[in-house]
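Quarterly update, task 2.4: beta-D-mannopyranose-bound model.
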Amino acid sequence: MDMNTLKIVAPVLPNLPWEDRPSGCAAPLWRYSKNPVIPRDLLPDSNSIFNSAVVPFKDGFAGVFRCDDTNRRMALHVGFSKDGIHWDIKTEVLRFTGADPEVAEWVYGYDPRVTLLDGKYWVSWCNGYHGPTIGLAWTEDFETFHQVENAFLPYNRNGVLFPRKIGGRYAMLSRPSDTGHTAFGDIFYSESPDMEFWGHHRHVMAPAAFEVSAWQCMKIGAGPIPIETSEGWLLLYHGVLRSCNGYVYSFGSALLDLDQPWKVLSRSGPYLLSPQTPYECMGDVPNVAFPCAALTDSATGRIAVYYGCADTVTGLAFGYIPEIVDWTKKHSIL
Ligand code: BMA
């Protein structure tokens, strides 16, 4: 698939962070040579900065970052960048406004995603409310964040909005879970007329059989905001394998039907990226590559993926969307 045949519905983003494919590399995704792009101690009291979301904003980028502090409390912080590489992350924690006091009480928040949707930047995150569930808020300026109702009952994680309405309704992927280090997990699709009431839940994907694709055989969860292409929604998602040394988080790709995204058109058997470098294999939780955001340039097909490494730092990886779409179809296990 080349740029002339694949249509990518995304902004033109000539300033997205980028590095050419290293010579001799045939993989559809390659790591930034200066990874980790965000170190664990960028803030005076941060223990780790990982699993975070970025979007184009004004003449640069903005983001919502998962920063665990040195009390090991999980919090969200706002950050800005001109180039997507050098980040100015605010030291003060992000606090939401406007929600019903019952859900507004801050307990913890982690693994944010951000998308521009109907002119507002919507944040979804894993929000502590009698256990983990999906919190939702919107902002126009990355200063004031208006919280709305939690989307689902606890327990749920990896709530990922689509960047436009589908069939006239807002749409979100999520992953029902438990209160701990959940040993199961399928991806589901839900719809809402108003970003408050969610229903029409549909099953999207289960973990793969271990003899078919072991990196995703225990649980899976949606990663960055899905990218609309003429071949379907390109979804990057993480998958977990349970080894004798604990969980291993890798990520791969799938194509979902444009109008009925709970229908999976193809799904990669090989991983796109698995923990292999020292910063992915060593840290607070070894062997984790966990993508939460991707920047795309529809003019060139380039993609820059931000992923958490070992629950400690943030990495960047690059690729071309038409190649990833081709690769997903070619290596599909469906
Ligand atoms: C998941 C989430 C992620 C984390 C991963 C690996 O359950 O808590 O935030 O990156 O585990 O520890």
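Highlight for this quarter: The chain has three helices and 22 strands.
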